[in-house]
């Protein structure tokens, strides 16, 4: 007949800490499904618990293995093949009692004295388990079908997820290439912006230069207007210029005449100065002679005076 399901319950699964061999380590974050099977051919039990895709318990219970109750809701057994100790925490004492009936507790084994009694007890347990399992077969089939459907959905979702991941990878690669292209384009645009800014600066300078040239042009236009106005009086100015030229020529002739007169006057003055110097010399000589005559006259007068006194 092979392995037959007996019953299913929910419990918190623990394993002994391999380093300390004292502390319990939770094997699941919450209560999980724990299923019990019986193999008629091998006369052995197997406990299986699966949390999602992870197998937490896959333990074959042999007759020499014992399920030990450590409290009203907790039991444990040692599995030499798995090289660990499993612990189950139930929500009620009834669930613990039902689980411990699979291979018997220490107390139950101690109450039997012989192999026949033990076999009878095992058969009774088997009958009870089979009775209970018969009632749960349909439930197991429903749950199995639900698990199959769930597994199919998960497989489909996994395939879709794998396809989505591949598509996402392709999209990511495309986006990365596009991002690199955009970065290169941004660098080009930044360089173009810098060039545009430089051109703007040049345009600003050119605009200022154009404004300066326009201002200068306006000034030149004003000067040109003034020159045009002045050009209207050029004939009159030329006529005046000719008149002035004629007067200038007459003045130059007069000036030449005056220069000739001045030169003649200079000659006359020089001659006059020469005559004056000559006259001054003659005058000095005359004065010297006169002074001598005057002195002689004084002497003569003194002589006369002396003569008159003597007389």
Proportion in helices: 55-70%
What structural class should be given to the helix and strand makeup?
alpha+beta
Largest sheet: 8 strands, antiparallel
List the total number of helices: 4
Taking the alpha carbons of the first and last residues, their distance comes to 223 Å
Secondary-structure element series: EEEEEEEEHHHH
Low-confidence stretches: 105-120
Question: How does this structure look, described?
Answer:
The protein has helices spanning 93-100, 106-110, 115-232, 234-310, and strands at residues 3-16, 24-26, 32-39, 44-51, 54-61, 68-69, 74-79, 84-89. With 311 residues, the protein is α+β, with helices and mostly antiparallel strands. Strands 1, 2, 3, 4, 5, 6, 7 and 8 form an eight-stranded antiparallel β-sheet that branches. The model is unreliable at 105-120 (pLDDT under 50).
